[in-house]
Prior knowledge:
This protein is of the alpha+beta class. The chain has helices at about 5-20, 25-30, 35-45, 50-65, 75-95, 150-160, 165-175, 180-185, 190-205, 215-220, 220-240, 240-245, 265-275; strands spanning about 250-255, 260-265, 285-290, 295-300, 310-320, 325-330.
Amino acid sequence: MRAVSPRAADDARDAGLDRAREGDRAAFDDLVAPLRRELHAHCYRMLGSAHDADDALQEALLRAWRGLPRFEGRSSLRSWLYTVATRTCLDAAAGRARRALPVDLGPASERAVLDSAPAGHVAWLGPYPDAGLADGPATPDVRYEQREAVELAFVAALQHLPGNQRAALLLFEVLGFSAAEIATMMRTSVTSVNSALARARRLVADRVPPVSQQRTLRRVDDTRLREIVTGYATALENGDTDALVALLTEDVTWSMPPLPQWYRGLAAVSDFARELPMTRCGSWRHRTTSANGQPAVASYLRTEDAGAYLPWSVNVLTLRDGRIAGITSFLGAQHFPGFGLPDALPPVSGDHLAPRSARC
């Protein structure tokens, strides 16, 4: 197959843009298709929710389609679409509470909290399926890789920033736009952009570990990574607290949004594991996946009144020194479709169902 020359590709893109301006929606969709995944990831970073990112991207593309006749081509189509998407996300975030994790709400619990109720008034940070990520960084000189830029610690830190600082940091550090380009996109001055960047960098540096999960994972060989992930799942399925504890760091944390409680340290985490998922919830099965550039395990729960194993949580694992330093269990079946996970798993012969006596 003959390769398409850059000039031919540019001509085809220009022709497609002309057709789109004349009202050809299919031509517009073709132009946008190569950028959809990175635009969606950008919306997730801005909003902290894959579901909100779905809505924001849909709204941004509708705005772009309606505004296409006014696009004069002074910037690239990619830059213009990021402008539209960023402004759409800023509009969506205006007046809303920031997305949070349990660690943002209060101190850790020292003992397992039984029958905990979800905190429905909190806007919770959500997981992001790795399948939605574009391949590689947007440009060679950007600071953050695409997977680094969706790691839980980074996205959680972003939620503490005002909208303009969040946008400036993402556009500059993750996407590689210049301060001058960002000033045009955000209708402000270069001085304001640089000031926003400086403030955003200070806050993010205080909240994000110095070693990213991508660097950590590169230091863990594939065999050890499989041992950690399958060991976590097997320990829960077998109700083996000792096997789980052997995989954890001394200062491990475990949180379960939308439940407000969270736990820190081996004593508190093992007490929670022993009192709830290991004994009182029912029977577990798991599927491995990946989320936020990190290893993840999808948990399915079967209770006495259920025939099948039903979606319960997507558990994102944060590693350090070859062990699990953090477990973030995003509770709710609504997270599963985005990962392409089954909506149920069949029962297994010989399953033991513990009486469900507490909210897991």
